[in-house]
# Entry
Amino acid sequence: MEQTTHRSAAVRDGLGVGLAVGLSGLAFGAAAVTAGLSVPQACVLSLLTFTGASQFALTGAVGAGGDLVAATLGALLLGGRNTLYGLRLADLLRVRGPRRLVAAHGVIDETTAVSLAQPTPEAARTGFATTFASLYVTWNLTTLAGAYGTSFLGDPDMLGLDVVGPAAFLAILWPRLAKSAELRLLAGAGAVIALCATPFLPPGVPVLLSAAAVLVVMAR
Amino acid sequence: MTLWWAIAALCAGCYALKLAGLAAPQRVLEHPVVSRFAELVPVALLAALIAVQMFTEEGGLRFDPARTAGLGAAVVALLLRAPFLVVLAVAAVITALVRIFTG
# Structure
């Protein structure tokens, strides 16, 4: 009985997070088209990359006229945190073979947060699957809607859509900044490094360079 | 490199990174340097992305009052614990309004 309660609570958590966060695919679709991507390019990113921060990072760099190699590396470096989520989840999900290949695509911020919040491994698996499915469907439908809708607008900047990418990053970062002064310092240092480097380096490279701030914090 | 190649590389790379975590031996995470690096890198990168997208344009520093007002509004929304999508909407609306009124 208790088992069932845990699992239905996990379904509720998963659907709530999946549907709410999935809606921000609208913002991604809009930001991608604003940056100069086509509607199919925006949709392929959401279908196959399926990790919001990396998607926003690539489109942001493209919009700034950045070097594509640096832009891709920066986006990949952001995707590196999913590797660590995978390490955390492997023991909990215990998936093998083809199921592991499918589950891997769903290893992102939101599914990890929901899974780790569940009281039992069964509930964690249910939470993972529910969040993954609802977020994947919503994120891709809203990406299409946002990209398609924006492609009809004359000047997306007039609607303030150029601020959506930075605001999304800030919202992702916020819980971490709120809980640690060290992380606030690191964020400030990363921002200053990137701004100072911008006039001297090709677009995309300053963002990569900001990772140097991590080495300073770790060496302390 | 065309944009499609960048997209293909990012899709393949991001999937490989996710799979690597699920398939790796568990003791990797227990290494304190790995877990600490993992916690810190996204913070520096996200902050740098915010700074660059807010305050640079075409390889130079540039202050855009409307965009700055929008991000300020996002901070207020976050302080009020607004949901993710509300934060983004508030930022865009304020930016657009400032642009309309400042021409």
Remarks:
- Chain A touches chain B through 99 residues (CB under 8 Å).
- Residues 2-161 of chain A form one domain.
- Chain A has twelve helices and no strands.
